[in-house]
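Exam revision sheet. Question 4 asks you to relate a sequence to its structure. Input first:
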Amino acid sequence: MAIVRIVNADFYMSPPISNLDVTYSEFRGSSVKQVPVIRIFGSTNTGDKTCLHIHGAFPYIYVPYDDSDKEDVIMYQMASGLDKAINISFGQASSNAQHIYKIVLVSGRLVATYVWISCKRTSVSKNFLL
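Answer key, structure tokens:
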């Protein structure tokens, strides 16, 4: 197993490489034109300098969702809305560029945790989606 001490990490967008990256989005029904590649600069435990290119890691977020009968419609509307907002933020409001690879409906349980602050004896509840 290789061990790398991370000095710096960034990412870049690149055309997908066949047999390494996804090239088609079934959610969008179209080919993928750009994929994120994480780049890690560092050194190994033996002191050799290294640069790792990590493919197949897509950024993600969780968005709270109340159960609705129109799940498919809402997912596509959300993807379209996010694409439009990203294009506007890039100063390309008329662009049709797609930035969302897919949206997946997941379910989980809310877990409440309580932290006691000793001087006030106050209960703080935090909810997490697992």
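Marking note for examiners. Strands lie at 4-14, 24-25, 30-31, 35-44, 49-54, 110-117, 122-129.
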